């Protein structure tokens, strides 16, 4: 894809606005327009769809989202150096881009999307240093089903594998249980370090998560209490790792279809939910 809009090339934008990447802000920029378009479309057609983007930076993915037809993009960027470049994009797509300067970890998402008409998706090349807490925050959204229709997010490949892992996989842990309980998550493609400026040390992966409309009844807090105890001592048998939680552990394990000598990594999401509810 040679050109997606008539704005200056991203390298030129970065040079003009002196956006030298800051490691402390997890800045690894995507300049390849084919790749940004592929990420923008990974969640399906964008016609009529609003998008929340965290960390637009110089705006490569933002421009792809708008060029691919997103109705409105609401972006949260912490680095004030990027705001002028983003204002140029907003002027190029009148009324379709709103940029909030600030920390996405402190964002009030329902307030930021108030007034938008139509479905909202989250799409972001996340800053690695806050990617997992942001995802956990979205997965713990109340009420559920949440305000977003899907999430298409870039993570370090190792984190992506933990998000999509199921029982008996090495990467299975607390994140996989939380994500698997509330969403259907899949890795859609990997992105090599060479796609970023500057290149990170590791491969990245784009993960697509679709909220389950009716996850098994439980609360994030109850589920976290169990998975923290179980995976906190993941080599121990459940009868040992869960014994401090109170309640009738023997009965709860039996009701969940689990043997007391099983380990956390062998327990499917549904059984964790059953334990969380039994040992509340
Ligand atoms: N979206 C751009 C792209 O794909 O080229 C930049 C992605 S870069 C990996 C992450 C972006 O998130 C940077 O622009 C960085 O300044 C921003 N950022 C870092 N921490 C943030 C935070 N807590 N809240 C909002 N934005 C943040």
TrEMBL record:
Entry EC number(s): 2.1.1.182
Compartments where found:
Cytoplasm
Its recorded reaction(s) are:
adenosine(1518)/adenosine(1519) in 16S rRNA + 4 S-adenosyl-L-methionine = N(6)-dimethyladenosine(1518)/N(6)-dimethyladenosine(1519) in 16S rRNA + 4 S-adenosyl-L-homocysteine + 4 H(+)
**Annotated keywords:** Cytoplasm, Methyltransferase, RNA-binding, rRNA processing, S-adenosyl-L-methionine, Transferase
Question: Which InterPro entries does its entry note?
Answer: KsgA/Erm (IPR001737), rRNA_Ade_diMease-like_C (IPR023165), rRNA_Ade_Mease_Trfase_CS (IPR020596), rRNA_Ade_methylase_Trfase_N (IPR020598), rRNA_adenine_dimethylase (IPR011530), SAM-dependent_MTases_sf (IPR029063)
Q: Which PROSITE patterns match?
A: RRNA_A_DIMETH, SAM_RNA_A_N6_MT
Pfam families (alphabetical) = RrnaAD (PF00398)
UniProt-annotated binding residues for S-adenosyl-L-methionine:
28, 30, 55, 77, 103, 125
Per UniProt, residues of the Ribosomal RNA adenine methylase transferase N-terminal domain are 35-213
- Any idea which GO molecular function terms this record carries? 16S rRNA (adenine(1518)-N(6)/adenine(1519)-N(6))-dimethyltransferase activity; RNA binding
The UniProt entry, under SUPFAM superfamilies, shows: S-adenosyl-L-methionine-dependent methyltransferases (SSF53335)
Quote a single Gene Ontology cellular component term: cytosol
Sections of the chain in a coiled coil: none
What family classification does the UniProt entry report for this protein? Belongs to the class I-like SAM-binding methyltransferase superfamily. rRNA adenine N(6)-methyltransferase family. RsmA subfamily.
Q: Identify the HAMAP family for this entry.
A: 16SrRNA_methyltr_A
Q: Which PANTHER family match?
A: DIMETHYLADENOSINE TRANSFERASE, DIMETHYLADENOSINE TRANSFERASE-RELATED
- What does the UniProt function comment say about this protein? Specifically dimethylates two adjacent adenosines (A1518 and A1519) in the loop of a conserved hairpin near the 3'-end of 16S rRNA in the 30S particle. May play a critical role in biogenesis of 30S subunits.
What is the protein name for this chain?
Answer: Ribosomal RNA small subunit methyltransferase A
Question: What species is this protein from?
Answer: Labrys okinawensis
- According to the entry, what is the taxonomic lineage of the organism? Bacteria, Pseudomonadati, Pseudomonadota, Alphaproteobacteria, Hyphomicrobiales
């Amino acid at each position: 894809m040679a050109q997606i809009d008539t704005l200056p090339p991203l390298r030129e934008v970065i040079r003009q606005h002196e956006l030298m990447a800051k490691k402390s802000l997890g800045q690894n920029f995507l300049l390849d327009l084919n790749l940004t378009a592929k990420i923008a479309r990974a969640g399906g057609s964008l016609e009529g769809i609003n998008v929340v983007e965290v960390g637009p930076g110089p705006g490569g993915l933002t421009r792809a989202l708008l060029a691919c037809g997103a109705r409105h993009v609401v972006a949260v960027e912490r680095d004030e150096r990027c705001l002028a470049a983003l204002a140029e994009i907003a002027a190029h797509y009148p009324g379709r881009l709103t940029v909030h300067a600030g920390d996405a970890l402190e964002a009030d998402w329902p307030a930021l999307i108030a007034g938008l008409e139509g479905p909202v998706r989250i799409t972001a090349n996340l800053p690695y240093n806050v990617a997992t807490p942001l995802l956990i925050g979205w997965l713990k959204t109340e009420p559920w089903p949440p305000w977003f229709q899907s999430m298409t997010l870039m993570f370090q490949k190792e984190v992506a594998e933990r998000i999509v892992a199921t029982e008996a996989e090495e990467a299975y842990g607390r994140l996989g249980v939380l994500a698997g309980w509330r969403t259907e998550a899949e890795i859609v493609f990997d992105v090599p370090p060479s796609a970023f400026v500057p290149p990170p040390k590791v491969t990245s992966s784009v993960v697509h998560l679709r909220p389950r409309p009716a996850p098994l009844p439980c609360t994030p807090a109850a589920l976290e209490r169990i998975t923290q105890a179980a995976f906190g001592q993941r080599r121990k048998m459940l009868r040992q790792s869960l014994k401090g939680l109170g309640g009738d552990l023997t009965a709860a394990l039996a009701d969940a279809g689990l043997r007391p000598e099983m380990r956390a990594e062998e327990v499917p999401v549904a059984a964790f939910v059953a334990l969380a509810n039994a040992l509340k």
